[in-house]
């Protein structure tokens, strides 16, 4: 009988689509830019009162662009900080209202999470979000209709470095350096999606070295916004 293998294959495909951040099963996802010697810095789970200002200072001092995928509830708690990110010229992305894992959520919950965050970010930052990244990259078939209706491009990432585990400043820097690749979208974090006071100082302190290493290796830091029309 071939029913069981086919069923198992179908379950496997659904699991892949749900858990793999760059899977195309549930709609188009951008997981990498053009294969030229450039990278894209992205930060999830903020804004964070401690880490985000440190990152902004470094990005300004080193003239590097970035994208910040914000949790709507945190942006509502820290409106001046969220607005500061936008005013500095960085891309604001939607990372849901409360950082829920969307793969097991209903259409109604998914719609509320994305749409409410959209309105908060629009009103708070003055920037209409056009980029979306699902928490942990987890999605289901109900995500795409909402993001499509809002005009979003959905982003995954080329690599992350588990900076959330706080392995040390130099280790975060080393992990990024060893995985640099043309067109890479780098996943980092300026907040903890479940705790607005989460400690991401190691990531902030690692950023100057990350930028220096990339540039020393011949990479430019490009704005993720250039991929919105790709």
Topology:
Layout: H1 3-19, E1 38-44, H2 51-61, E2 67-70, H3 72-77, H4 79-87, E3 91-94, H5 107-125, E4 131-132, H6 143-149, E5 153-154, E6 159-160, H7 169-179, E7 184-189, H8 201-216, E8 220-221
Structure, described:
By secondary structure, the chain is an alpha/beta fold. The chain has 8 helices and 8 strands; from the N terminus they run H-E-H-E-H-H-E-H-E-H-E-E-H-E-H-E. It has helices at residues 3-19, 51-61, 72-77, 79-87, 107-125, 143-149, 169-179, 201-216; strands spanning 38-44, 67-70, 91-94, 131-132, 153-154, 159-160, 184-189, 220-221. Helix 2 runs parallel beside helix 8 (201-216) and helix 7 (169-179) packs parallel to helix 8. The radius of gyration is 17 Å and the shape is globular. The model has no long low-confidence stretch (mean pLDDT 94).
Element order: H for helix, E for strand: HEHEHHEHEHEEHEHE
Q: What's the β-strand tally?
A: 8
Shape type: globular
Q: Bin the strand percentage.
A: 5-15%
Catalogue the unreliable spans: none
Alpha plus pi helix count: 8
The Cα radius of gyration reads 17 Å
Calculate the mean pLDDT score and round it.
94
Give the N-terminus to C-terminus distance in angstroms: 44 Å
Oligomer category: single chain
Largest sheet: 8 strands, parallel
Classify the helix fraction into a percent range.
40-55%
Structural classification? alpha/beta
């Amino acid at each position: 009988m071939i029913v069981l293998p086919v069923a198992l294959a179908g379950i496997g495909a659904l699991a892949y689509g749900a858990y793999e951040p760059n899977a195309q099963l549930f709609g188009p996802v951008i997981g990498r830019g053009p294969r030229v010697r450039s990278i894209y810095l992205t930060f999830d789970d903020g804004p964070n009162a401690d880490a985000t200002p440190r990152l902004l200072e470094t990005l300004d001092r080193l003239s590097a662009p970035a994208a910040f995928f914000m949790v709507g509830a945190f942006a509502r708690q820290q409106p001046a900080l969220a607005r500061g990110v936008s005013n500095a010229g960085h891309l604001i992305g939607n990372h849901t209202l409360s950082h829920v894992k969307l793969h097991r959520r209903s259409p109604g919950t998914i719609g509320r999470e994305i749409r409410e965050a959209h309105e908060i970010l629009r009103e708070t930052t003055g920037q209409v979000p056009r980029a979306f990244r699902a928490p942990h990259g987890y999605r289901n078939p109900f995500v795409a209709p909402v993001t499509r209706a809002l005009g979003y491009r959905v982003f995954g990432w080329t690599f992350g470095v588990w900076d959330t585990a706080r392995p040390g400043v130099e280790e975060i820097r080393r992990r990024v350096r060893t995985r640099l690749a043309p067109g890479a979208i780098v996943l980092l974090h300026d907040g903890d999606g479940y705790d607005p006071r989460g400690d991401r100082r190691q990531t902030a302190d690692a950023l100057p070295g990350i930028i220096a290493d990339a540039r020393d290796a011949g990479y430019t830091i490009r704005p993720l916004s250039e991929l919105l029309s790709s």
